[in-house]
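Q: A reviewer asked whether we had any structural model of the full assembly, not just the individual parts. We don't, so I'm hoping you can provide one. Inputs are below.
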Amino acid sequence: MNKLGDLAGEAPSSEHPKRSRSVVQDQVLANLKDALMSGVFLPGHVFSLRKLASSLGTSAMPVRESLNRLVAAHALEELPNGSVRVPKLSAKGLKEIFEIRLSIEAIATRIACETVGPSIVRDLREINDALLKSLKAMNMTEVLRLNQKFHFTIYEAADSEVLMPIIESLWLRCGPTMYYSFNSPNNLWDNSGHRLLQDAFKKKDPEAAQSAMVLDIGKTRDFLINQASIEQKAGPFASLGKVAV
Amino acid sequence: MNKLGDLAGEAPSSEHPKRSRSVVQDQVLANLKDALMSGVFLPGHVFSLRKLASSLGTSAMPVRESLNRLVAAHALEELPNGSVRVPKLSAKGLKEIFEIRLSIEAIATRIACETVGPSIVRDLREINDALLKSLKAMNMTEVLRLNQKFHFTIYEAADSEVLMPIIESLWLRCGPTMYYSFNSPNNLWDNSGHRLLQDAFKKKDPEAAQSAMVLDIGKTRDFLINQASIEQKAGPFASLGKVAV
DNA sequence: GATTAGTTACTGTGATCACGATTAGGGACT
DNA sequence: AGTCCCTAATCGTGATCACAGTAACTAATC
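A: Here is a predicted structure for the entire assembly that you could use as a starting point for your response.
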């Protein structure tokens, strides 16, 4: 499973590629973030600095700094020997994260609904239409990607440099687990939250938008908690072996 | 301004110092965090990798990783040329941070009051007594340190790996500005919030504790916002530079 | 055949260097 | 005296290396 993304696929032994500024580290970081959100790495996966570097076609330095940033954002956790891995969320930790997500994303939703223009209504509808189509095709990877896009379209509208990093960190933390759980068979996605959200933004009703977001996240949380208790043996919450990179 | 702390002051050219594991980076990071919270660096201060390294008696590597982590936590911000500096908070940014602090720390306070044992009452009283003493002596550095200890005693009691990193990040972001503002002459510290908090924990009343915390943070916010408008010319709120991503 | 000891490969860490870009400073010319 | 250009110092970045600790694997011994 080489090459996480389409990062400059040249051989490491080639001559100096034209790099203007620190694009390398940014690309590596973006790649890793995307991979985490998309469920490329399972919870518990341990990263190897040199292997990751060579698989990305770069040296260890940019990977070191990227992993360091993800550790600082608690998207990855540090092992006693200094290695980093994708955290295995306990049921308690998962519940905590969603508790905070409820509060923070509710605030962001209210602010967004208070300040944003009407163009967001169309954006949200388009995203949700695509989501429903992917849901019908049972393409859960795409469903999760579009769900993320739906939520972040709202949060970006809040235009807060304080809220956004917190929300991103929370999503990075529960992303791997979410991906894992929503790939299970008995998965029925409830779209009522998204509908209520669109209605609230159409009517520019911040209170309604806020409670709709609380409802939407609450449903996701309940599903995940339920899955956690089902998959307690083989799921990402138990001891699962490492996955080759 | 050499030597932030008492970090291994040996000459870099000496023989191998006995280092068991990655204590160096941890010490550097702890030093920088402490310095930020204590107001050693003013908002706008630009860091130089090599100078910081030599002033700390180490090489560039541990400093690089520490600064990187602080950037990831938004405690420092990245300039277009890759240098990092202490952010100059705009009045809007400061207001946002305190808005989130109100929500997050209120939750942490409620959880703490619900779960923690009675020993916290004594701890809080001791800290607040020392705070009042330092206040009488007009030792504002000590007051700020004890205020931080008071708050974090509560937050640590909530025992959450989700809330604590968020709270720490928020304090790191507004720390330099707080230190700067509270060193001003016309500063009267209102201790009523701390008193109400202690009462609430004594009676184990989570709701009262939560609203007392909201009150306490709100008072600090109002004072800071007021200071911001006073010092609009020369203070840390002056012409806010671009905010790099 | 099971256990233990020894060796080998691999881990992150810290230090150092080359590179390109940016910046500040000084000198010369108008 | 003011302005402009050139140079030198400094910046972060990416690559590479030595080191110490650890984990795993192999081989020898009981």
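A: Points you may want to mention in the reply: The longest strand of chain A covers residues 46-47. The mean pLDDT of chain A is 83.
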